[in-house]
Recover the amino acids of this structure.
């Protein structure tokens, strides 16, 4: 791969990171869903699951070169550097924007989320090979689980460091799982607006604790997910489709409270969200690694 190809690859992955990070700050939309529809999902899950920290052994023995070799063998730097840069930039820049819209234009914001989710569910469904009773049952289980889960009342948790750590651990598992929104889990844990404020104020202690919980969560959960995708892909994807459809209960509850004129505008905005995801899926299908 020459320099031009490497640069194109870097930019393509960076853009994916921007979209994934944007989804991660939106309640009801999963960054894992965006990773899936942009064609990077399985590579990401597999790359995370490959990290086993074997480079720590030679590093502790003072073998810097050996640690470097192990690190290069384990970590897909060509993926992680541009992807994390895009995700980080999107989260830092969009947190204020999302907080503004979700505070002042609740119905319209959730209508946009609905369009994203419906399109994502359609795309994931199109990736399932064949139809079977097992796939149908898996999808139904995902739908029921998500529908009940979304109906839960927010937990009145405090904002202590242990709670922030647990929130990071739980939220990252949802963020990498298409269909379940990590931001929505933070809403249920009463941490969403607080963590947006933490990002805006750049509270280092809370951010570090949250990220530590997230790192621990993603390292453990990615191995389970990698196994399921490699050995039970159709059933897993069916379950994820059900999850996405079930989570529509959240935006529906927000949109149904407005007047008829606002509902029409909400439908138009929802169609725009749907079209955006379909456009992204078509665009990224042409990019190869």
């Amino acid at each position: 791969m020459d320099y031009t190809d490497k640069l194109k690859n870097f930019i393509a992955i960076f853009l994916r990171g921007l979209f994934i990070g944007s989804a991660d700050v939106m309640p009801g939309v999963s960054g894992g869903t965006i990773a899936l529809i942009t064609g990077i999902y399985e590579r990401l899950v597999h790359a995370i699951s490959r990290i086993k920290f074997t480079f720590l052994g030679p590093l502790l023995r003072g073998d810097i070169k050996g640690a470097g070799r192990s690190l290069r063998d384990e970590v897909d730097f060509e993926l992680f550097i541009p992807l994390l840069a895009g995700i980080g930039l999107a989260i830092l820049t969009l947190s204020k924007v999302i907080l503004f819209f979700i505070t002042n234009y609740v119905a319209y914001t959730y209508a946009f989320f609905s369009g994203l989710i419906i399109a994502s569910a359609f795309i994931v469904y199109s990736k399932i090979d064949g139809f079977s009773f097992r796939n149908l049952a898996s999808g139904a289980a995902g739908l029921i689980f998500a529908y009940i889960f979304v109906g839960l009342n927010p937990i009145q948790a405090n904002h202590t460091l242990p709670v922030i750590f647990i929130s990071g651990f739980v939220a990252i598992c949802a963020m990498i799982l298409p269909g379940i929104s990590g931001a929505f889990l933070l809403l249920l844990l009463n941490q969403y607006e607080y963590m947006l404020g933490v990002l805006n104020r750049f509270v280092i202690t809370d951010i570090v604790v949250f990220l530590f919980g997230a790192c621990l969560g993603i390292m453990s959960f990615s191995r389970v997910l990698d196994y399921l995708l490699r050995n039970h892909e159709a059933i897993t994807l069916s379950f994820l489709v059900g999850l996405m459809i079930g989570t529509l209960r959240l935006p529906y509850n927000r949109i149904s409270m407005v007047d008829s004129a606002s509902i029409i505008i909400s439908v138009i905005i929802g169609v725009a969200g749907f079209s955006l995801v379909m456009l992204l899926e078509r665009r990224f299908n042409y990019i190869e690694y």
User: Anything to note?
Assistant: Residues 3-284 form one domain.
